[in-house]
Amino acid sequence: MKTFFEFSNTSVIRKIKTGILCLALTLVFSGCLRLDDNLYNKTKLTEYKLDNYTGEVDFTLDNSYHIPDSLVHIFTLVSQASDESSATTISAIYIGDIDSVATDTVIMYCHGNKDHMDFYWQRAKLLANTKGKNRFGVLMIDYRGFGMSEGKPTESGLYADVDAGLKWLKSKGLTNDRLVIYGFSMGTAPATKLSAEPRSMKPCKLMLEAPFASAEVMVQDASGLALPGTMVTDLKINNAEEIKSVQQPFFWIHGVEDDFLNITTHGEVVYANYKGTYKEAHRIPNAGHSTVPNTMGFQTYSNAVGDFITQH
Questions:
Q1: Mean pLDDT to the nearest integer, 13-31
Q2: Residue 237 — pLDDT band, cuts 50, 70, 90?
Q3: Per-residue confidence at 223, pLDDT binned at 50, 70, 90?
Q4: What domains sit in the chain, N to C, each tagged with a CATH number?
Q5: Is there a contact between 295 and 284 (Cβ–Cβ < 8 Å)?
Q6: Which residues pair with 282 in a beta bridge?
Q7: 65: nearest Cα among 299, 303, 284
Q8: Cα–Cα distance for residue pair 218/205, rounded to 1 Å
Q9: Arithmetic mean of pLDDT over the chain
């Protein structure tokens, strides 16, 4: 079965929505099927190829965004979910000088559900080069079950894995006032959760690209029926509620033509529910779910991201 959160291919998305409708109708009568195990589109790897990756990507940057090998660090972390008895080894990539983590501004990038860090490498490079060549440090992880990370994806594991990254940054001397957390698509769940309910570190700013309101809204939008989400999933993810507890400055960006995570039923709800110190919205005309940076223009996107990080 295709994943529930297949966030990149619009033709596949339409098939998923049809499939969910059929599944939802089946659930009305059977009540025995769950979508939780199909939430994540997990692709296993034996190595990360980064710039040499030849698989599908949302966009490719030109050589001006190149990251020197000396600033690319691939390593592993240990992650312990609250509901698990043993730890899980996950993979991570840091862009920047590790010896300067304590004095740099670092973006914790929480990627979407599709594939692995090779797929999101271009996005990480774009963030690292915001407001100047290799201006910000960027940490990205593969959630358990993704890429070369071990284990099976779970909701509690999703939060624990991102927090494992934050623990590593803290061990290198990073302080809360230099930590920005950025979530894209499925990654908006841990980004919002760990901003509202900090664990190892408290991000000083929250950035969400194409956030979903909740698992409940996902089910209702996909099925076209007023079904309770509990009929289809045990997931408790609810960005629309979590955002109410976020006080840090908030940056929201969403494609107006997003035909999977509808900007009205998802992004606008999350944005409206934020009641913190500062918020700004970027509604991008003609952009779909995965095309915000390139539709907006890489320089324009970088300016918006960089201005928020440095000015608010």
A1: 43
A2: confident
A3: very low
A4: 10-311 (3.40.50.1820)
A5: yes
A6: 253
A7: 299
A8: 26
A9: 86
Amino acid at 248: Q
Q: Which residues contact 232 (CB under 8 A, 6 or more apart)?
A: 20, 23, 24, 27, 34, 35, 219, 223
Class of residue 274 by CB neighbours under 10 A (exposed 0-12, middle 13-18, buried 19+): buried
pLDDT of 110-155, one tens digit each? Answer: 999 889 999 999 999 999 999 888 889 999 999 999 999 999 988 8
Residue-by-residue DSSP string for the chain: ---TT--S-HHHHHHHHHHHHHHHHHHHHH----SGGGS-EE-B-SS--GGG--S--S----GGG---GGGEEEEEEEE--TT-SS-EEEEEEEES-GGGTTTS-EEEEE--SEE-HHHHHHHHHHHHTTTSTT-SEEEEEPPTTSBT--S---HHHHHHHHHHHHHHHHHTT--GGGEEEEEEGGGHHHHHHHHHS-SS---SEEEEES--S-HHHHHHHHHSS---GGGT------HHHHGGG--S-EEEEEETT-SSS-IIIIIHHHHHH--SS-EEEEEETT--SS-HHHHH-HHHHHHHHHHHHHH-
**Rounded CA separation 191/208 (Å):** 8
Q: What is the pTM of this model?
A: 0.86
Residue 312: Cβ-neighbour burial (10 angstroms; 0-12, 13-18, 19+): middle
- Residue 183 main-chain phi, psi, to 5 deg: -115, 135
